[in-house]
Design brief:
With 126 residues, the protein is mostly helical. It is built from six helices and two strands; from the N terminus they run H-H-E-H-H-H-E-H. The protein has a two-stranded parallel sheet.
């Protein structure tokens, strides 16, 4: 079947709209989490609140073990992952460690930090 010029333009508009919808759904399901992470507290506020937090990028075995649900095995897994994959940019990145799931992460999220702006800048430029 041969399409007229107007029909071809109409088909192109429909395909472009469909592609735009797909991009919106893809961005919504994958990119939004990244955007949420970018809209965190300003660095000065985050650094002020870090007084009693455990820095998962600098903490040793004993300090990591002071966190609820983090025993020696999980603490060693954090240290090994940090050495193999580099520092954590966000506290939620701990989910990449075997043995740390959503439940444990939720229990410790308000007790940990990733060292503030220093690590974010180092990761972002590397």
């Amino acid at each position: 079947m041969k399409l007229s010029g107007a029909d071809r333009r109409f088909a192109a508009v429909i395909m472009a709209a469909g592609a735009a919808m797909l991009l919106c759904f893809a961005a919504r399901s994958t990119g939004m989490r990244s955007l949420e992470m970018l809209t965190r507290e300003p660095p000065a506020a985050a650094e002020a609140a870090q007084g009693d937090l455990v820095d998962v990028n600098a903490a040793g075995l004993e300090e990591l073990m002071s966190l609820p649900g983090i025993g020696e095995v999980r603490a060693r897994a954090i240290l090994e992952d940090r050495e193999a994959n580099g520092p954590y940019r966000y506290p939620e990145d701990l989910i990449r460690v075997k043995g740390i799931g959503e439940g444990i992460l939720e229990d410790i999220l308000d007790q940990i930090t990733t060292g503030g702006q220093e690590y974010a800048q180092n990761i972002g430029s590397g």
